[in-house]
Amino acid sequence: MTATAEATTRCWTLAGQVRDRAAARPTDVAMRAKRLGIWSDVSWAEYAEQVDLVGHALLGLGIEPGDRVAIHSENRPEWLYTDLGTVAVRGITVGLYPTNPAAEVAYLLNDSGSRILIAEDQEQVDKALEVEAQCPQLEWIVYLEPRGVATIDHPKLMSWTQFIEHGRAHRESDARALDRLADAAEPADVVTLVYTSGTTGPPKGAMLTNANVEFAANVIVNGGGVYQPPPNSGDVILSYLPLCHVAERAVTTWTNAISGAIVHFAESIDTVTTNLREVQPTLFFAVPRIWEKLKAGIEVRMLAASRIKQANYKFWMGVGNRMAAQLVANGGRHTVKTRIMYALGYLFLFRAMRDRVGLRKVRAAASAAAPISPEVLYFFFTMGVVINELYGMTENSAVATANRSGRIKLGTVGEPQPDVEIRLDEATGEILTRHPGTFAGYWRRPEATAETLDADGWLHTGDVGEWVDGTHLKIVDRIKDIIITAGGKNISPSEIENSLKASPFIREAVVIGDKRAYLTALIGIEEDTVGGWAQARRIPYTTYRDLSEREEVLRLVQGVIANTNEKLARVENIRKFRMITKALGHEDGDLTATQKVKRSALTATFAPLIDDMYGNTDLLAGGDQADVIVVERAAR
User: pTM for the complete prediction?
Assistant: First the structure.
């Protein structure tokens, strides 16, 4: 009698996807990173080998299923090795933003109970060592870059090289350890904690499972949306947004593993524009801030260009505007006429523009993570870059809606993705989503989970929406951000703010007016563009604050606000504004790590300026005077 082993089907995991791709196409390039200024290839076989070694190293250091491993680093191959190595041992990855200060590092390590921290360099190691005494569960700090760290004598410190050697030793002693764990993996295994931005309180760790990631990754790549790969494509991705954010994880890690697209790691967030030109990605995802910055860069360069170049730009952008209008009317699809217009414009302007900003080879572009002004999207339509606006959030694995090729409606976030249910709350208009990518809940926060995820599986997003033509979803605003004026009018501040930020001169705009008689705004300038504008006009300045307070700059901002007011209903007009006289930052508590404004923190910081704008209402007593924008210097 012969016994036959029964075949087993392993649970889907990202680590398994990488292993399978490495077996099928071992020499193909999986990712590229710069080493001493030169792009270096990492093959799928090398990727899988590193994931394997990290998994064994974690086991050698005592990591067990369900244990947490934190990563505090810029985007680089080791981020992915650690992420998937942790998945391979059924552990849970916790991403930290590179900009997290020491106090936030302590909070995240303690809240997650992380046992091992992978820290990139001396800056991140210093933060960890500053707070490690407050983190009793933290056992090891593994550093990637030895400069400034290798000479530090601390019992919890270990180099990446030593860490990998632990992995080799463990693999030699128990070569099948990862196979046994892969056989035991389950769809409900939590694979990562993605912490919320913390705009309304301490960040919460959203638990995403193998099943969540499998659903989301397949929808993103194979669901007929933006990133669906054409046959035999060699797609290229630039990874630059923090990998601890769900959107970048979906674009970089998930899309790479499912589609085989080659990931290029930007050197830093500050070099994105340079790396874009070098890499010329075919797939490009960006948050609104990046699209706004690219637009501003083009417009500012043209202000300093020769008259001939300016004339050429003006003429062909006029052609592009007519082309864009037809593209918008046609759902983003080209007609014979628009193809001819684009072909001519490509010869004389569009090719050079797209090449300059790194979008020459882009076949699919997307914007998500925050609302974006339709004016910004329209600008890129004029050069033939059709941006698809998407909608999703951490709690639904970044999957909800998408504008699809040929069915784009500008100003909306598109249609529900495959197998995604969406409805609007009848009383509040809140968007509710339900699908297999819905998160397992907040880490150690059952009350917060119950507030967000109801008994029927509907995720309460906190966003107000409305349907356009019964098919496409439009985001009105966050429920908590809706302004109700003293007159009882409901106003969405984000639409006004995004219109203001469409100007190359405005970086931040925060509309104020809840329970007030009229709307006001705090304005932060884009230093590079306003500085260039000032230099061209021989306006002297020394600091950011000095530039912000120049009379000419105040008049410049006044003009931007006046233009925006013309597009809005009277009740939505900005009547007064004050300048934010410092660059906002995460470490100062003004912005979240994802560069979203913390409204409550900002309004508290600048309370004297806000009170000043509502202190004198004589000018707003009625009549035509109510439309006057009052320009005054910020109180010192």
Answer: 0.89
